[in-house]
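Subject: Interface between my chains keeps coming out wrong

I've been trying for a while to get a sensible model of this assembly. When I model each chain on its own everything looks fine, but I need the whole thing in one frame so I can look at the contacts. Pasting all components below, labels as-is. Any help appreciated, I'm running out of ideas.
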Amino acid sequence: MKEVINLPVKNVEEEEYHINMGPQHPSTHGVLRLVVSLQGEIVKSLKPHCGYIHRGIEKMCEKDTYPQIIHLTDRMDYLSAHINNHAVCLLVENALEVDVPERVKYIRTIVDELNRIASHQLWWCSFGMDMGGLTCYFYGLRDREKILDIFEESFGSRLLHSYYTPGGLMMDIHPNFQKNVKDFLKYFRRKIKDYDNILTGNIIMQERTKGVGILSKEDAISYGVTGPSGRASGFACDVRKHHPYGVYDKADFKEILGTEGDTFTRYMMRMHEMRESMKIIEQLIDNIPAGDYTAKMKAVLKLPAGEYYQRVEAARGELGVYCVSDGNKTPYRMKFRSPNFSNLSALDHMSRGVKIADLVAIGGSLDYVIPDIDR
Amino acid sequence: MNFSIYDFTSFNQWIDKFLYDNLPAFWAVAVEMVIIGVAILLFYALVGLFLVYAERKVCAFMQNRVGPNRVGPYGFFQTIADFIKLMLKELVHIKNADQLLFNLAPFIVIIASFMAIAAIPFAKGLHAIDFDIGVLYVIAVSSLGVVGILLAGWSSNNKYSLIGAMRSGAQIVSYELSVGLSLITIVILAGTMQFSEIVEGQRNGWFLFKGHIPAFIAFIIFLISSTAETNRGPFDLAEAESELTAGFHTEYSGIKFAFFFLAEYMNMFIVASIAATVFLGGWMPFHVGGWAGFNHIMDYIPPFVWYIGKTFFVIWIMMWFKWTFPRLRIDQLLTLEWKYLLPINLVNILIMAFIVLMGWHF
Amino acid sequence: MDNAALKERILGLVPDAEFQENKQFLTFIIPPAKMHDLALSLKAEADLAFDFLFCLTAVDMVKFLEVVYHLESTTHKHQLVLKARTEDRVSGAVDTVCDIWKTAELHEREAYDLMGIRFNNHPDLRRFFLEEGWVGHPLRKDYVDEVNIVEL
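Reply #2:
Try treating it as a single job with all components included. I did that and got this:
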């Protein structure tokens, strides 16, 4: 006689359904893998699996001199490459107590903000695409191209510039730089209205994002969600305001804070931030003082033994560089506190109980860049 | 035989007579069927290729791009090149897939759209079958495609495909109602379900204008729900490439994928044809009351051109939808249908019935 | 709270905390056993209110492994660096703080993965970047990988 096996009766309502989003998936913007457990279309929980593009930049830094490290930082968050460079340059300059010429500070601030606009433009394209509106992608890329052209003319490259060096800049700006930037601002002030027309004001987009993926202020702080995503929750975390560097203290700009903390607010934060960045550039572009484009630096940079930490506001949030030096020309330990890494940790919390389509929208609104998470 | 591009009736009768005179009755019917089948198949393939090209050009112009422009003048042969590529591509064998259903699914989808095209009047007399229940037939047949989509999602052994198929099932079953009810609104006005008579009834004015506001509301609802029924953006939840990679046809490659692709475009063509036939006067020329000279010029344009023009106008509107709107979420999609479109539709039918009863229409 | 007052306050909470000179931040070395209790009171007490852990990392000082916590208060704007040291390179462990600052969960996983420090009571302490079964912890100074690391 056959043995009777009592199979446990499964409750269909409680059964979970796991899908792998990534490492190859259109909406993870890179090689991020999210293991999502679903119940029907509803996300119960998700676990991020990273490391698909882990290059060990922190380990590589231990072998490189400080000017060399700058080239590695480009490759973390490649969409805000200038700002990453800025962080390392500031760290080295502060450690060596170098006085950087005013001209350099002005140029760096302007270029940072241009970089921020370019980054947010690409975010806007991909957010539109995540929502299913493909046309946005081309609108955004069209305008980002203008900024990249300015970059190319002055710095010789479009994505990974390595334009800043400890103490100054690699070379002076192109003579057309100021004119081109002003032309771009005039152009983009007009074009950003298109962004609002095609996506912001769209009823489908608003219905899909309002009240979805809510992150409270307490959670934003606890998860360390910074940048526009953190400010959408009301977390005043703009490093440019609270720990100014460059010439941000001379520019008049607002730190815009949201209250809702939902996907739509995160979207609006970045739209506002593009306008604020334009405002900053407009104030500075005509006032770039004459002078050297770099301070006198030693051939070999050796940081005094000790610990250094530098925070800057990258396009996606607060980038921190922590450096332990033992007095050699290479750092003893280098740590990059990347904004996307912390922002990603909140994704599970935000996306519980939403639909799978919302998960994509939330991911888009967090705007993660995977090489920055993995480093 | 007097052949005229304004009326194909005599041409058809001539072929019919010729065949019956020379062949036994059974073979005459068989040959007629083959001729019609081949003609429709050719038309189907050509329109499919052209629609893919048109979509790429339209979306390119909406996105500040040039679109295909390498293969032939203005890239006109791009889709033919694509078709050859898809024909030659390897058919990826899926492990643990239900092979029978997996292979059957694309055929069901394409057959459903192929059957629907039979009932559409292209011009006077150019009409494969003129059912007296043409509207009902088209609604019935075009909804068969969902079976193919469900099978494709189920048999692929892929979770994304399954989610896409289930979404598609829910979506098509709900939007079928709105498509049917908005057509019934016009059937009440026309008093017939036969397509040829519906077109004939619009000789003195399109139903869109004849039926006052209810016809207009029905037209809008038809546009929305038929876009949803064909799984096109902003209702392309079954594919939803940012969420489900490619939805129900994730696992298909080569010619099987091409079948899904072609069927999607042909479904769009069919619903646009129905919209043109039922609301916009089919192959009837555009007339303005009292402008005799203008009307006379309009009469010179062949009916087939009118039909194609109106259909492509509707298709262009649908493409416009797709390339400007973000995608809906599944719950919003169903809310839109069950909470908004369906009640509006039911009330609309009542109003239309009342108007027809009182004879208030033109 | 300024740094002098903050220093008194921390020493009041943990008398055996070791003060370390640092130009930038107020820095303390805390015995690992007391780390969690201190973290709890740092977050909870109204005059401290360190609610933002803006960086958590680990450093291999060869003699010992060090976990570095960078803290900031979003209300009072004061900053603080805490360090916890463990000399055990094989099973050295520090209590997790991810129940206090949720961001620590991923940061601690990263530290465990690359530096090999264990965190007691961590809900999901697995490798984060490297695959399961990877031998060694690459950011340690004594990590040798002749295949993947090219010495210049």
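Reply #3:
Confirming on my end. DSSP finds 15 helices and no strands in chain B.
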